[in-house]
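Researcher: Go.
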Amino acid sequence: MGTASKKDGKRDIVKIFEVYRLYQYLMLKSPAQIEFIRKVDQAMERLPVKERQIISSRYLQNGSEYEKDQNVYGAMQISCSTYTKIRKNAFNKLALMFAMDADPIKEGRYEEANNA
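Model: Structure:
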C-alpha cells in the first residue's frame, strides 16, 4: 500500500470518527445513524486496550476534535514514538475492519446516514 493510499485510509477513518461524534450528540437518531454508531463501537471493542484508549481519547470522546496527540501520549505516560506506533497499528486494524464491513463511506452508507 502506497503512502497516498495509507493517508487516504487514515483520512477516511478520521471522517468516520467525526460523523460518529456528531451522531453521538443527536438526541433523535435515525436507524441508519444508530447502526453507524453500533458498527464503530463494535470495531473499537475489537481493538486491544491501549489502541482503544488512544483512538478513543484522540478521536471519539467529547471535545476530542480539540485534543492534541501530545496531550494523549503525555496522559498515558508513553513516548511519542510508542504512541505513533500504537496509533498506526490501530488505524491499520480499523481500516481492515471497516473495509470488511463494506466500508460505510465508500459504499454510500456514509452519505445515506449523513443525509438521514
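Model: Residues 3-22+30-115 form one domain.
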